[in-house]
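Need tokens for this chain, all 392 residues.
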Amino acid sequence: MISDSKHIIPEEFQDIAPYDDSQFHEKMRSLVAEPGFEHAIRYVMPDVDYQEFCRELLGVPTQNDFQHGVMGKFLEFLAARTTSGITFSGIENYDAAKNYVFITNHRDIVLDASFLNLCFMRHNMPLTQVAIGNNLLIYEWISDLVKLNRSFIVKRDVKMIDALKAAKQLSAYIHYTITTLHESVWIAQREGRAKDSNDLTQESLIKMLALAGEGSTAERLMEVNLMPVSISYEYDPNDYLKATEFLLRRRDPHYHKSKRDDLLSMETGLLSQKGRVHFHLGECISDRLAAHSGSERGPVVREACNLIDSAIHRGYHLFPCNYIAYDEYHGGSRFADRYTADDVAGFDAYLNRQLDKVELTDVSAEERAYMRTMVLMMYANPLVNQLRALEA
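Here are the structure tokens for all 392 residues:
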């Protein structure tokens, strides 16, 4: 968690909080002994000397050293291997004297928060704790790994009767992290990724954040310094998997993904090419919420969602594929000056390669065309939302 041992995590948060330095070495020894962890490392880094890698991990003194010395190097490796570069803007909106809840749109299960923290490492900024749903902790060793890497757990499999208790615990932990540990937090604006890239903040998330703290709803939200962050990927490695899911739901409205599907999405997002990636820090919304400190909860929550959505949409970094997808999806050539004929040919070839990866064996020509349309919508929607935000 943090190397300062005077902060002992209260018992009420122990089951969801990251491991601290007193637990670090014991949990690391357990992790490197896990066959599943070894398999994952060899899969991601085929040339690794696993025994030497384990010795390096076991020699890491603290969690902070693990994040910077091990995870930092690994993320630079992934960035070099799977992106055409990661860029970062909006640092003028960051106040080093404050701690924030960085709330972002959600593009990749694993890398959204990881690459944001890589940007922070590159700029010598403090790293964040990371919210992760327990639905993704398919194996116990994955849970150990993320908690070693300063992730805290969002309980998503609780019964209805326990949901409010879990939300209160999560809210209290986030407020505790900001106000007592003086660390920042990353959380996605919604549960799960927006399959159509229409990024909108869930009111339930904002209501959860306002369960803890002091004062009115607005004042409780102001306490955690909500800072919207826009994430832009040139290419979404999971676009064909999302298109497959759209088709399966079209065929069967009751279709549900399996744990294997989640694991495949994690692997694909982690290891496949994403093109250019950009993160933009928007302005903290606390000052805007101050004007609503006397308002009822409902209007405050809706205003917070609107402010976050507008900031994220305005902060997108758009690529030629977004403009091409918009023109093809909506018909016309409104943004023809934003791309070339080579861009169009390249994006068309990319779409065909992605759709060729769909593993269903009984896809008709009409269904393939439907999946292509859904992928075009995914790439067009960031532009649609940015236009709407800029015109508001």
